[in-house]
Structures are given as C-alpha cells and as structure tokens.
Amino acid sequence: MVVNEMTRSVQKKGTKTVVAAAVACLASGAAFAAVNPADAQYKGAGAFVTWNGEAPSVPDANPIVMTGAQAQAIGGSGKNWVSVVKSSAGASGTMNNLDIDLTAQGPNKTPYQDKQLILVLSQGGGINFGGDKLNVVAKTDFIGGGNNQLAGIYSEADAGNSMGISAKKVNVDLASTAADGKSVYGVSSLGGKVNITSDALNIKLKTSTERSGSKQYSETAGISAGTFGNFEGYRGYVGDITTSANTVVDVNVESTTATATKPNNDSEFGGGSPVFGIRSEGGLINLAGTNKVTAVANGADAHGVYAVNYAYNSSLGLQKFNSEATVNNLTAKVTSKKGTAYGVHAKNNAVLNTVAVNLTGDVDISASSTNSKGIYAVGQNVKMDVGEDGKTTSIVATGKGGQGIMTDTGANLNVMGSSITVSATDESGRGIAAWDGSTVNIGNEKTETVKVEGNFAGIISVAKGTTVNVVSKKIVVNSTDFGVHVQSNTEDPVAPKEHATLKLKADEITINSKSLGLSAFSNGQMDVTGNLTVTAENAIDVRGNSTMNINTDGKHTTVLNGDVVFETPNAPGDAQNSGKIINAYVNVGLHGENSVWTGRSYQEYKVNNKYEQIVELERDPYHGNVTGFKTEISNGGKWIVNGNSFVNTLNLQGNATVEGNDAVGRFNAGEITVTGANNKLLFKRGTEVKTHLTVKQNADLTTRVDTAFASTLNGDIVTAAASKANFVFEKGSTLHVDDAVKYTNAALAGMSKAYGNLSMVLDNGSLYVASDAEDRNIDIASNLTVNLKALGDQDLAGGADKFTIAGTVNVTAGMNGTTPVTGVTMNDVVVSGTENKAASLNLDNLQTMAKSLTVSNGTVSLRGETASLTVGDLNNRGTVDATEGTVVVTGTLDSSAGKLTVANLKVANGTDKNVDGFKTLTALDAGTGAGFTLESDRTLDFVAVEKGGILTANGTLTTAQLTNAGKLTANTLNVTNGTSKDGSLKADILNVAGTFALGDKTEVGQATVKGSATLNATTLGLTKLDVAENGQVTATSALTADELANAGSVDADTVTVNKTLTNNGTLKAKTLTVKDGSSKNGSLTAEVLNVAGAFELGTNELKQVNVNGGASLAAQTLELASLTVAQKGKLTAADALTADTVDNAGSVTVKSLDVSTLKGEGTLEAENIVFAEKNDLSGFKGAATLNGGTYELTDQNAVRWFGGKTTLTGASVNLSKLTNAEGTLANITVDGGSLTAVSGQIFKTKLADTYVADPEAIVTKAGLKSGTLTFVDAKYSVDYANKAGALIDGMTLVFKGSLVSSPVPEVPPAVTPKDDLKADDLTDLKADNKIVFDAALDNTEKSHDSLVIGSPDEVDGTTGEAQNIDKNLGVSQIKLSDKTNLVAVNSNRTLTLIGTGANESLIATETGATLEVGGKNTAGVLALGVQSDAVANAGTLNVDTNIGQKGLVEVNAGSFTASKTVTNNGQLVVKEGAALAVGGSLELKAGSNTAVEGILNTAKDAKLNVETGAKLALNGVAAIEQIDVTKHDNHEEALVTVGDNAKAGKAIIKKLGVGAEHLTFFLDPIWQEGAGISDASSLALTDLSSGVTSKFIVGQNSVLSLGATTAVAEQAFADIAHVNGKTWGEDITAAAYADKPVDLGSTGGLDINGGLTSSGTVVPPTAKDVNVASKGMLIINQDNVVADTAFFTAGSEDAKVTLANGSYVAIVNAVKDAAPVKLAETVDNRGADVVTDNPFFSGSIATNTLTTKFESEAGLAAIASTGIQSMARRADFVMSETVANRTSLDQQLNAGFNLWVDVTGERYEADKLDNNGSFRSDAGYAMFGGDMQVAEGFTAGMALQYGDASVRSDISSIKNSIKNYGLTAYAGQKFGDAKVVGELAWLKSENKITASQTAMNQKLDVNVYSAGVRAQYELAAGAFKFVPSIGLRVSHLETDDMTIGTIKATDSDLTYVQMPISLRISGGEVAASGWTFAPSFKVAYVPTFGDKEIKVYGASQDVLDMSPVQADFGLRAVNGNLMFNADMMIGGGEYGTSSIGGKVGVKYVF
Prior knowledge:
The protein is built from nine helices and 174 strands. With 2046 residues, it is mainly beta. It has a 97-stranded mixed sheet that branches. It has a 20-stranded parallel sheet that branches. The chain has a 14-stranded parallel sheet with strand order 115-118-121-124-127-130-133-135-137-139-143-144-148-151, with no helix packed on it. A hairpin with a 4-residue loop joins strand 173 (2018-2028) and strand 174 (2033-2045).
C-alpha cells in the first residue's frame, strides 16, 4: 500500500482520515510534513500537524490520538523533536476544541527513544486555541537527559511568536513514567508570548524522573517562563505568560522518585526531579485570576512559586537575566517527604539582575517538610511583595526546622494584608527569620492583625544591616525560647551604624514565651511602641551594649509578666560564643493605669563557676557594671517588685507606684526622681532602701515611716522622728506616710519639723496618749494632714482631753473584723487655724459626738448622707459643711459669724442666720428657749416640729413633708404631704402639693391645693381657695371662701363662695351658694345651687337651681328638678334645658327646651322646644321667641301653649286645625318664621269651594312682619291671592289647594276648576308680589321662542318671539311648549319654583330649554323652595342654567337637583336647611360667588369646574366627587373656603382633577369657646392618586384630612388627645391628618396655622412646602409609612417640612418596630413636639426623620400605678388573713353557730414599683362569716367580703375606683394542740380607671382563685399562748385585657404560690364587769413565688409584692357569747409597699 506524503493541507473537519493517515505513516516510515528549523539543533524536528499560514490558514482540530511508535516515526532517524501541533511564521487564526491524547510507550531501546515530545509547539505566527475545550494529554516512558522534555504547550523563541488560548476549559495532563525519563512542562514559554483567557486552566504533571550524572538534571514545572539567550542570531527573547482576571488556574505537580534533589552546578538540580508549580527563570509571568498550586515530592524538593535570575540549559549553559512573577489570589500547598518544601522561593546570585515576586490578593501558603520554608528570599536584588491591603495572608511552615519566613543576603520582603499569619510551630521552628542585611516589613497601618508563631523563635533579626519592621493594629507572637529577638554580633560601646534592628508598632502587642520575651544582644536594637503585654520567665533579656526601648513615648501601656535580666554565659576563660559585656541600654515606660510590671530586675553571670543573681550597682570589672537601666512610671503605672532588685534611674512621674512584696529585702536605685502627684514607693517596714531621692517641686510621694524618717519605734508606737540624709524634698512637695502605727504628740511634733515646713500626710495611723502621760492633749500642726479611722466608743484623739486641730484631720469608717465602725467619740474639739492657713476636720459618713465644738479660721466637713454631728452647743465662727449629713444641736446654735451648710438640721434654739443647704429641719423641744427661727425663705424636704418645739418662719417655708405637733407660724407655707392635726398652725398662705391634714388650731388666709394633692379638714374658712387639676379638698363640715378656683375635686357638706367660684374640676356639696364664676370646664354636683352673680356651668348634676335677680347662669346642658330665675336673672343653655318645673321671671335662652311645667313672666328664646302631652307652657306669661322647630296646634293642645306673646323667627307653626285660633294668633308674631293657617283665621272673607275674589281685610291680631304665610284652604283663586298679597305686604304668601277660575258671567255662579295657571291668569297680579302658587304655570299652548320673567330687552342674546311676564312669579313648575327654548329672569324679578316632588322637573320641556337668570343690566333671582312645610320643596332643575353676572340663584328650603349644567357668573346660594344635588355639571366662572350654607353634593359622574377668579364658600355640608380648574387669563387662583366666622363648614372632596394647581383652599371656621374638633371646619380629600397639587390653608379651628374621611382624622386626634392630654382650641388650634404619603407635585403646599382667621389677608403657602405653625398639629398614620421613602414629596423634586416652635407632629397607629417616618427630604424643625396615640411610644425627629420608640417604662409604670393586680391581691390577702385569724387556735369556738363580722380600713401604698410606678390607696373591707363545729374537732364555715378602695397616683393623675366581692369556704381539724385549716376562695375586683391620659380610661375586672392549707400549733407559757403557723396557698389571678391606644396588655394572668408564716401571741387576760380583756400580737410574713409581672411587647412590669409582712396589735373583749376585737395593723414589703390601718370585729355564738 502506497500512501502519498502528507502535505501542509490537512483533511477537512469531519473526515476520519487522521488516524488512518497516522497508521499509514507508521507503515511507510514517511514523514507527514517538513519542519522549517530555527537552528541546526532543531532541524530534525517533525510535526504531525503543521500550521504555517498556507491554506487552509487554520488546520482542523479533530481528535488526535497517537502512540509512541507513531511519535517515533514522525521524526524518523535523527530527528529529536516531535510535535503534534506546530505553528511557524505566518500562522494565524483560531483552532477550536483541540483534543490531543498521546501515549508514547516503548520500545525504549530504539534509536529514537530520547525524542522530545511537544504536544503543542508555537515557533512563530499569531495563533489562538478556542472553543469549549483544549485537551493536551500525554503519558510516556521515553527516556532522556537534562531537560529533554515532555511538554504540553510550549512557545519558543521568536520575535513575533504569539499564542492565545481562549478555550473555555484547558486541560494539560502529562506523565513521564521512566526512571531516567523526561523533564515535564505543562505550559511553558522560552521566548514567546502566551496569553490565556480561558475560564479554567488545569495542569496535572507527574514525573518519576531522576538524574545520576554530574551534569545531568531534570525538572517538572506546571507553568514556566524563561528567556532564550544568545544562540545563532537570537538575542534575548523573553518568555511571557499571562492569564486573565477570570481565569482559574489549578496546578498539580508531583515527583514520585525517592531520590533527593542534588544541587548541581549553579544550584541546578540533579538526583530526583524537583517540582515547580509556577516558575520564572528570566521570564515574565502574570497570573491575574485565581491560582491554586499543589506541589508534592517524595525525595525531591518541591516549590510552589519559584523565581530565579538564571537558568541552566544543557545546550545553552548558564544564563543570567531579570525574572518577574505576579500571581493573584494564590493558594499553595507544597510538601516533600525527604526533600525541602518551599512555598515561595526567590533567589538571585547576580549583582546586576533582579528577581521580583508579587503575590496579590489573598495569599495562603503552606510548606511541609524538614527545614521547610513558607517564604524564602535570598540575594541582593530579590524583592518580594506578598499580600494586599484588605486581604488575608497566611504563611505556614510545618516540619522540624521549618521557617515561616526566611530572608538572607540582602533580600527585601514586604508582607501585607488585613490579617497576616506566619506559623512554624514544630520542633526548632522559626516564625520570621531575617539574616545578613535583609529587610522584612510585615503589615502596615491598615493591617488589623499580625500573628507570628514559632517553636524556637517568633521573630528574629540577626547580623549587621538586618532590619525587621512589624506594623499592625494588633501583633501576637507566641514562642517557646525566643519571642522577639535582635542581635548585631558586636558589642561596641556605641553600636555600629548598620546594626541590626527590630521594630514592633501596633495598638496592641502580645508576646508569649516560656523563656525570653523580648531580647536584644550585641549592639542589636529593638523598639516597641504599642500597648504591650509580655509573658515570659525573662520578660526582657539583654547584654552587649544592646538597646531596648519599650514605650518611651509615654502614650501606651506596658505589661511585663517576668523579670528584666542583664545576663551572659561568658565567663573568664569560657566565652560560650557570647559577649561578656553585661550592660545594655534598657528604657522601660510604664505609663497608664493598665501598665504593670510584675517581676524583679537583676544581673546574672558566673562568679566562681556558679551563676549568681546580683542587684548591686557596682560589682564585677570583667563584665562591667550596668549603667543603662532606666524605668519611667506615670499615670497609674505600677512596678510590683517580687524580689531584690535594682535600677539605675527610676522616674516616678505622677500616679506612679513601686510596691514590694515580702520577698524584697533590698532595693538599690541610683537616682529616684519624683514628679507629679500620687506617687508611691512602698516596701514593708524594715526593707533596706538605698538611693538618692529627690521629690521635685509640687510633687508628692507616699512611703513608709522608716523609709521617710530616721525614726524611733516602740513596737508600733512612734515615739520620735527626724530627717534622712540624701532625701531632698523641694518646695511645694508633699510627703505621705502610709503606715499602721500610733503617733504620740512628740512624734507628731518631730515629723512636722523634720524637713522644714514640708506638707505631710499621715495615713492608716492612729493617735496615742498614754494613760500616764502628763501631756493630755493632741495637737495637729498646720503642715500635717492626718487621716484617721473611726474607733466607735474609743476616743478618736487617743484619749486626749482636748483635741486641737491647726492642720487637717480626715476621718473615715474603721473596721471591726468585717463590720464597719462609723462612730466617732471626742471630748472638747477646737478647729482653729490662722488667717493664712485654715484648719479642717473632715468626717466621712460617720456619726460623731462631741461635748462641744468651736470652729475658728477652720472648716468642719461632714461627708455622706449618713454623716451626723451631735453636739451640745455649736459655736461656729468658721465653716461647718454637712451638705449631705445631719447636725444635731441639743442646746444653742450660733453660726451668725460663720457659715453652716447642712442637709438635715435638728435644733432646739437659735436662728438660721448663715445656715444653708438643709433639706430637713426638726425643731426640738425648746425647753425654756425661744425655739428656732427661720429668718429667710426656705425650701425643705421635711419639717418636723416636735412636741414642745417652736418653729417660726418669717418668710416662706416650703416642705415636701410636714409633721407639726408643736407650734408653727409662717407667712407662707408650701407643703406637699403631712399633718398638723396635733399642732398649732398659723399661716397667711398655705399651698398643698400632696396630702395634708389640718387640725382645729388652724388660722389660714389663702390656700392652694395643687395637682394630685389632697387637703383634709373639718371646717375651712378662707379668703381664697385654689384647687388645681386632680387636687382634692375635703371638708367634712363647711367650706367658706371669698374666692374658690377648683380644677380638681372639692367635697363639702356646705360650700359658700362669697365672691367668685371658678370650677374646672369636680365640686360636690349638698348646698352650694355662689356669686360669680364658672364651672363650664368642670363637674358640679349639688342638691341646691344658688347663683347670685355671673356663673357658668359645665358638666353638672343638679337638682335645684336658683338664679337670683341680677345674676346670670350659663350652661351647655341642664337637667333639673326645678329652676327658678328671678327678675333680672338670666339663664343660657347652649344645648338643652330639661326640667320638671321652670319659673322664669328673668331671661332664659336655650337651644332645646323640655319643661314639664313652665311659668313666669320673663323672656324665653329657644331654637326648639319639646311640645308633647307632658309639656305645659301655658303658665308662662312672658315673651317667647322661637328660632326653630315645627309645631302643630290643635284644640286639644293649644291650652298648653304659651300663655304670653310668641315670636316666630325661624319656627313653623301650623294653626290650621284650630277651631278658634283668634286668641292664639293674637299672641303670635311672625318675623322670619313660618305660619300655616286657613284664610278665615287671617282675613275677613275666607276662601270657599266656590270662587272667592277678595279677602277684604285682615281680621287677625297676629303680627305678620316677615317670613312665610301658607294657606291650606281646599280651593283658592288668583284674584284672592293677589288681593291677599296686597293686604300683607312684608310676607311671602303660599297658596295650596285647587285653583279655580272666576265664574263665566253668562252662567253664574258656575266655577271652573283649574289644574294649572295660565299666563293670562296673572294679568292682574302685582308686579312685585310675593305670592307662590302650589300650581304649575302651563305655557304649553304658547308658541313663543322664549318666556321672559322681566324684560326681553334684558336678555343676553336672541330671544326670538318672546312671551313676557314682567312681574314676580311663584309656581311649583313651568310647563313649556316644544317651541320655547329659553326661560329668562331679569329686571329685578324673582322666579320662585317649589316643585312637585324630588324626581319631577321644575321646567317641563320635551325639546329642551335654557334658563337664564339675570339680565344684561338688571338682576334676576331664581328661588328654589320657600319656608313652608305644606309644599313639596323638591324637584329637578332639568335645563341648562346660566346665572349671569347680576343673577342670583337661591336654594331657600327643601332638596333640589340640578341634572344639567349650571353655569354661575353671578351668585349661587344654598341656604341653611336646604340642599342642592348636582347631577350634571356645575361651572363656577371667574368673578362668581357660590355660598353653601346648607348641603351641596355632586353625583358620581357629575362635574364641578371652577375657573380661576371664582370663589366657593362651603359653610354647610358638601360632598364633591372631583374639582377641575380652568385657568382664566386675568386670574391666577380660584379660592375655596370651608366655614366662616359664623359657621363651621364640613366638606369632603374625593379627588382633585385637572388644573388643581390653580386652586387654594382656606378652612375658615367659626370659633366657639370650649368647642371640640367635631365643631371645627373640616375638609377631607380622600383620593390622593392624582396628587395634592392645590394649596391648603388650615386656619383656626379647622382640620384637613388627606387620604381619609374627616371621621378618621377626628378619631386620630381624639386618640392622641386622650394619651397626651391635649385639648382642642387650647393646645391645638389647627390640624391636618395624612393617612398615606402625600405628593405635592411642583405646586402643592400645606399651611397648618391656627392663627389665621380670615381668607382676605392670607398668603398661600409656598409650593412644595408643608408648614406647621405653633399650636398646629400634623398627624401621620404610621401604618402607611414606606421605609426610607419621604412621606411628603414634590413629584420628582424634594418637598420641605417646616415645624415651628410649639407645633406638633403626631403619629397614630404607632407600633413596635415600625418603619421610621422620613417626613421629607428637607425638614426645618424649630422645636416641634412629637406625640403618639399610645402612652407606650414616644417620638423624636432627627434631621428629616421621625422615629418612634417603644417606651415600656412610662407605659408599664402607668399600668402598674392603677394598682389593678396589686389591689386585687391585697383584697385577697386581707380576706385570707381574716380567715386565718378567725380560725386560729387561740380563738374561742363555741358549739353552735358562730356568726362574725370584721370591718377593716387601711392606707395601702407602693411608691417604688418597677419603672418608677407608684400609687397610694384608701381601702375598706367588710367581711361577714359564719362557722360551726360539725364534728368533734372539725369546724367548717363560709364568709363573704365586700371591699371598696380608692387608688390615686401622680403618674398621669391616675384614679381607680375599686369594688371587690369575695367568697371563701374554710374548714379546720384539730389534732390535740395542732390544727390544720383548708380554704377555697374567689374574689372579683371591679376597676374603674380614669387618668389625664384618657386612653387609659376604662373598666375592667380581676378574678382571683385561691386554694390553701395552714398548719398551726399552740404553745402555752404562763398566761400567754403562742400559735406559730405555716401554710401553702396557690392563687391564680386573671385580668381582663387592658387596652391603651393600640396596646393591649393581654399577658397579665398570674399564678403564684404563697407560703404564709406567722406567729400569734395572746393572753394576759384581765376581767372586769363581766368582760374578759386580752391583748394580742401577730406578725405574718408571706414569701411568694411564681408570676409577679405583666408583659407588654416583651417588656415586663412587676405588679405583685412577693414578700409582704404585716404586724397586728389587738385587744379582745369577751362576755358570754359575744366577742369584740379591735386591731391596729402595720405592714410593708417589696417595691416600697406599706400599709397602716385598723380593724374592728364582732362575733356572736347562737
């Protein structure tokens, strides 16, 4: 078979010839393609696929599978390179999805066995390998020598050689299996560029190759780049390999040979083939993606990343050049079992070349082998950068002798990262080792942590020129031998310039080592800056003139746990490879309170072959002396010396301490210099301290007595003292002696003189006077300060008779074992200094007693709340300061020449002159003295006047607590709580803020009772009494005052106010007599109210009211039994007056009147009266005016009608059914009202069934002035009506019934009935008539084009043929012919239409018509409806209506609909009581005015279009679907007002339409004093989808609602007001509610300003602004808040919210964890308050955001302060204790039925509840029970309990009225002297809560279910019985849910277990008069376990006292079957609970 030679053209993709050709080739031995060699060596190379630029430009990339034989055959004989795919110059394009699989196995003994195998070879061109994959796989056992290679992808030297690899995944998998096999390369470049942009590059190489020849070597490299040197014309082509940032590289290289790598030549390698993950030998490598390297070797060396400046090639020899490798995000794991593992290895052996390694991103390197190196950098020009700021760097070396980082021979290494870890923890491991001039920089200021761990050493810097710098925020070094070490290998006196250095700088530095912490040898220098902690045996170890600087900047702390040692092993004749100089320059700074050195300092070297520890400053000439050891201590630093020590220089620089323990016997210091304050040098007494001491000016030092003085001691008694040599105390310095010794007077004198006038302080000592001493005094010199401990009963001055203090004595509590001693006893004390230096005695929290105290030029100070000073007489000419303590003067106090400041003063006699600060004052029994006088105003917490005490206050005395049992006189007395029942009180003014009781000996002029305060008295007579809100005054008898102002509660039997009563609270009295005043804002309850002046009522409960002549009474509502208004008296009831009887001789004005019997001759005005069968008004003969209401008089009820004159101004009265109305009419005047009658009641001639033409004359005596008169006769004629109108000129006459025409003359008296009017019927009608016919005008027979009411000439337009009626016309309807298309009203004529029904047309037309109101020059009026109940007043205006500029449409009464278009150019008025519904369109033109006083609404599809320049006044009720605005050329804005100064408007607008930006709303209300928000003008815009682009001005007494109805807004305000106590009209005058976010667009604005009252002067708000003025409130619904989104926006622009000082922002629906409310992008908050609808939430505004906060404390405190659970538990406790007492063993139980009653009263309070809750209560309980003995020793019984309690709290002015009901069943069994009692109980507590936060106002119940058992035992001792008892009682307390705003306190059911423990003692009976009396005493303690807290939103509030204690003191009296008992009870417990009360009981046995 003959096969053609393969050409450069290969088969097309898709054929199957490739393998076949290979087989054919093998058979023939022919080559496929020739190679164009680059040089002679390569001329024999062959290629399977050649890519050289010839067609096709890109060969196919079919799968290529080759065998070794095929590979051998390609080359043929003599060709040693075999390429599978080879490119050459000219090649280009992309080969996709190349897949090569080469298996080159044997035979190995052929001539071609050493052929080099290159799977992809690029020798030129610019090619690319693309597609999804590039697979290069080969396995061979071919042998070779040197770098005879197996290569996957290889780019060779060529100036234009460029290879791209873009295949998504690249897989290179190569294996050389022969022992003498090949070097293996994954991706390599020797002079060409390889650019890899693949997603993944996976390289897996495995070799078994090893070399044995001396020149032989091998290697395996995953990625390798080199430089091709000079060779046959090629000059320095640099290999360049790059990957993209998204390329993930995974390199796995393995060498399996067991032979170690052998260095050969220039460190090239023989033996086992070393492995390299990434290698640069003069090349450029930049791997920008993520890179993982795994390098594993058995016997050979392994390298993760390797860079070197040379390469050895068997052909080219040794070449040197620059190398560079950059690897990003490197993870390298390198291991070698027998060789050496290098994580990263860089070296350079040439001076001129450089090696640069850059590891960027995160770095994770581990190297594992013996002597492994994580990073190894060696050589002069090696520079390595590892890591990157913000990334993580980890370098780990494992194995014996491993080094994390090693640098050598001038290399430069920088390691960076946020976290840097270097570790070499195995045996002999070193973390960081720098040698021989190398430089290592670890971290920088951005590094968070550097952690270095080394077994042998942590960090070392060795040899001249070596530098290590470590910088981080935190440095941690852990080691066993050397922690951090530096040495320079010289020991010159001055270190050479290039000495080794090591610097540590960090915020926190920690060094841990077993041996040496910080060490510096042989001229090395170490600088440490940072908060340092060293823990090592030798914290610092030095020698050889080295330098160690530790925090010498004074800014960091130093902690040394170990010794400072100057040592060397060098001894004469035995150098031990170490220097001999012992000196080093050590500077240690112990600065800051956290700086502590615990250890000693010494020198250590051999003396006579034995190591000694030496502390002498001068000793051994061989090693020299230490001269450079300096320690500075300041700012709380401390040296704790634990053995003999030395230091050359010791500087104590303020707050510095050197303290020795008991092991210290010697302390040598060359020089000690003391500066600053609070320095201590403290060694045990007897320690040898050698030094020269200088205490600088103004410094102080504390030391022991024998350190400071040459002293004489007798045991612990110092008998003499003198100065020491070498001790210098400069001027102004201070010496403190801290020693527990006793000082004699002689010793004190010697010490005070020892160092001149040195200021001295003696601490912990005491004073001593021997019992036999002649000198009985103790004198403290002026330069001495003595600090003493209290000695209790032992004399503080050592027994001195006189204790004279010229200096300072400070006394604090002593100790007796563990018990504090606070008592101080002295005799006569004199504190007397000089004018230049005052003396002082300072007593700290002590109780001091002295016979007398004299102070002169001195100060006595009592410090602490428990401090007290008790003296007989106090003569103070200096200063006595007891600011927190107590001074008791049992004799006379004289401080007139001095100054006394005291917290608590108890004094018998004297004055308060120069006495200040006291908060409590007790006036002691004055004896024969004048008592104590307060000459100035005083405010005190407590005042007590004891019996016999006299206290006079010449000014104002203010006290929180007053107990007066003596005599108290004051000008003004302000008291919170207390009593004066037992004393005498005289005051011009009394102000009470709490609970205060007055006695009978009281003279008070004016009294004020403040909020939540209570004043109790029997009788009170005052000039003025003022009771604030929640204040309470109780006078059990009479209260008389000229003036009484009550905002709280006043309760008295009789109250008389001679001048003015102002009651805004609650006033109760049987009889109240008042002149002037008001109770409109209060509640008044009285059986009788007498008013003699001007008085105003609010809430009231009255039976009888008498208004005297000249007096006036005003009220909203009155409901009385009787009312009497005297002549010239006046009563006004704004709402209603209901009474059984009213006798009015004066004036009564009411809105609604319901009186059973009305009489009198005064005046009455009412809007409405109730006139039913029970109402008899006939007795009223005065004048009545009725402004409203509808009344029908009949023959039956007319007799009960008013007996006097009645004027109808707005009322409607129907007399038509009266048979005889003449008398009634004679008393009626119609002046604006309506009267319905029949004609005969008014006129001489009445209407009949026949035609009647003339009424002739008026016969009625009624006053017919104005209003409406309706005739309801069955028939009427036009003529009659016309003439009636002429007779009654001022009124509108309405005629109902059937219309009849005049009889035909030819046929008399025939009558023609007429259904409708004809125009001809109106001929004789007066032009200006006011007659309305309840009939239609039938014009259907007319053929005119128009109907003109007025003049056709006035019609604005063409009238055509006009029918003219030039007179007023009133009809029910107009019927038009089909030809008439216009109805016009002008010429000052009025058309009145009253309609025939709601759905009936007012103008009937089949073809349509137009109604024109108003002429060109004259007015026209259309009136819809009349004031008459007899007509329909309803209809539909079914034609287009145009109101001209002079036109007027009035809707007077009834309800009308406009179904077509109404265009208003003039005026449109809807009057009060009338309604207009717009079903079509309402157009309001520029210049028009529309006023709605009644009701206006628009249908769903109706339109309201307002032109700018128009005005719309909504003063009634309006419901508008949408408002559109049209811009008029001459006007910018249209104005809509809601409400005016006469009336509040109520409007709801669903949506703003087009042009709304030209609309301004002004809410302008009526203002009524005391009106609520429901009385305000309101506008609701409910649909915000089109934005809020109009301008809204919310004026006084107005509310705007956006996104919701007004009802929602009003409820929101009510909720807020309830919680925060805000009042509409006082605190808040205008409000806007926003239910959801508001978009103002670019034109909208909002101004909430209650100060605005008129639209005429208002400037619209600025666009995009929301302004809230003072007293304005903006309410936001938090439910609809969107997080991080502005609530108010302005389209695409920013809105601004401005909040004035005094304004409010309110949040409703506030819930926990709600999103903050970003009000707007810009918020100008000038002092707004934030309130919520929930007391559990508060709010605040920061920048532009309002945040609500769950305030559990305030809410929970309020709940607890209601006492709900506490009082229920208390009632249950009382019930159980009562049963326990009744069933006690000592209680006599007779056979038969025992009936008993117990009544208990008590004051119970808790003032220290959680969250500052508190309450106080007065409670009473009555318990009724019965029991009997059922069997021997067994009794059973039942009892009922009723309780009533009143709870009060200052928190939210809470009051809780409680009633409780209890039932219990019990049984007991006796067992000898023991008894067991069981009990079942139920209690229900009903709570009625009121508070200033009205959200708390509610009623709720509590049920308590209990079961218990008690065991008792009776013991007798003489006449007394002792009954101890113990029990167990389980209770379950259930509380109804409590709702406060949105909060429900539901988690409030409690289950608890009580263990009552008690002891009852009774006996000592005494008999008298048949009675037996016995006292008793009982104490009970009830520890309680279980639930005690309620929870709201997870926050807890304790409500139960878990440790109640109660003691009872009682007396029992028994006579036969009857027993009485009386007890006094007192108790207490947790949370400040206390109780005091009494109980009486009776038992009777049947």
